[in-house]
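ARCHIVE CARD
CATEGORY: sequence design from structure
SOURCE FIELD: tokenized fold
FIELD CONTENT:
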């Protein structure tokens, strides 16, 4: 076929595709489809076996009783929302979804922004990201020790007790008390003399039960001297090593109790006070004449033992803290990667226009990082919905019910002591339903970014 040109000559038109070429193209196209199908078939079979079939079987199994033979309909789902343990797990999951991803993302954002301007930022990021290399099991064991109640073993309580004792010194002799025949009576942890004291005569205040660790470096007690116009006395540990000695009397080798507060009380009012010296002696002014001597309970109070981190009231926040320790580094790395792609011209333009660093961060940096922040937040939300390891390992048996989450309750219902796989399957389906909205939002975000 030809077309006419301006000069009247005919120019050849585009060549027609031959039948052989068309057949060859179709053959190649068909071959590519078969090759694609062959490559996809193993993946699709694996996806069906590991994802589609378990989901379908869980939905079917959730409609039957514990034995799997009796059809109960939606009774298992009704139990999910009425059982106290499962409701506690659901409440804790809500706390996890709201708190853990938000705090981890916020910390990751702060770390990424602050470390961008320091020379040792790479080293800091490495340290913060390092917990990601530790498994959930190992992290749970670590934090189980960190939250140990005993300050000598638990790091958290060791720090907390140290801070507390800095502002509120511990009692000098916790657990010390008088003998049954001593001239002292007990009232609300304090010890008071039975009789009033007189100026010019010394008073003996013997105690027992002081711990050997509190007596390190103690000096030998000496009897107080009688001082005219003053009330004197001695506070000591009425105990002789190896036995022997006379109760109520200072024997050779008996140790003084230094730093014990002694108060003179008249009509329920403290009129004078003193502190025992290194040799156990104390001196009160003449105003103490005719008063009773009292050793306040603050001298013998039990030492502060820290916070019960794994108790029923704090176990969930404590475990969330362990999770944030692990995943803040993940958030920091992703946000730092997004921050590296932010145009510096926009930040500099905002500074030139007079914006301070906080305004640049809040009105320029954060909006530009919004897609990255959304990725991190959604990823962590999906992750915490299936949290299991940390809760199971860190929470002690006494607090496990209070720290319960849906994934842990699913395990307990399906494989625990009171096995009911119908309820366990219902919990699994409910978890899937909770994850679906988050996945839908994530997919919409991905499609929106592809259109840009």
């Amino acid at each position: 076929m030809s077309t006419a040109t301006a000069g009247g000559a005919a120019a050849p038109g585009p060549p027609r595709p031959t039948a052989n070429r068309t057949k060859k193209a179709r053959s190649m196209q068909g071959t590519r489809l078969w090759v694609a199908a062959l490559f996809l078939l193993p993946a699709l079979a694996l996806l069906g076996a590991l994802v589609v079939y378990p989901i379908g079987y869980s939905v079917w199994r959730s409609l039957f009783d514990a034995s799997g033979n009796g059809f109960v309909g939606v009774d298992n789902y009704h139990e999910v929302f009425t059982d106290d343990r499962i409701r506690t797990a659901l409440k804790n999951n809500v706390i996890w979804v709201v708190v853990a991803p938000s705090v981890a993302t916020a910390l990751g954002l702060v770390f990424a922004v602050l470390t961008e301007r320091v020379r040792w930022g790479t080293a800091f990021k490495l340290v913060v990201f390092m917990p990601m290399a530790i498994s959930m099991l190992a992290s749970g064991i670590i934090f189980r020790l960190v939250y140990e109640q005993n300050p000598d073993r638990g790091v958290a309580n060791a720090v907390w007790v140290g801070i507390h004792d800095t502002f509120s010194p511990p009692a000098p002799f916790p657990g010390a008390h008088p003998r049954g025949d001593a001239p002292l009576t007990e009232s609300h942890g304090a010890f008071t003399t039975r009789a009033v004291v007189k100026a010019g005569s010394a008073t003996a205040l013997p105690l027992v039960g002081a711990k050997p660790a509190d007596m390190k470096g103690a000096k030998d007690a000496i009897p107080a001297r009688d001082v005219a116009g003053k009330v004197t006395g001695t506070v000591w540990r009425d105990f002789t090593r190896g036995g022997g000695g006379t109760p109520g009397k200072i024997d050779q080798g008996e140790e003084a109790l230094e730093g014990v507060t002694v108060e003179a009380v008249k009509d329920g009012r403290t009129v004078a006070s003193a502190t025992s010296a290194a040799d156990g002696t104390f001196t009160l002014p003449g105003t103490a004449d005719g008063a009773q001597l009292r050793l306040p309970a603050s001298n013998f109070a039990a030492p502060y033992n820290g916070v019960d981190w794994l108790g029923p009231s704090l176990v969930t926040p404590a475990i969330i803290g362990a999770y944030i320790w692990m995943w803040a580094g993940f958030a920091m790395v992703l946000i730092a990667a997004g921050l590296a792609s932010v145009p510096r011209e926009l930040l500099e333009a905002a500074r030139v226009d007079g914006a301070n660093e906080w305004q640049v961060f809040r009105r320029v940096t954060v909006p530009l990082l919004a897609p990255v922040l959304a990725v991190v937040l959604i990823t962590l939300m999906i992750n915490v919905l299936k949290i299991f390891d940390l809760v199971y390992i860190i929470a002690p048996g006494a607090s496990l019910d209070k720290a319960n989450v849906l994934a842990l309750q699913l395990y307990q219902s399906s494989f625990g002591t009171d096995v009911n796989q119908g309820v366990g399957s219902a919990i699994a389906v409910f978890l899937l339903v909770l994850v679906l909205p988050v996945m839908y939002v994530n997919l919409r975000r991905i499609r929106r970014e592809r259109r840009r």
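CARD ANNOTATION: The chain has two domains: 75-160+309-451, 184-299. Residues 184-299 form one domain.
SHELF: design records, drawer C
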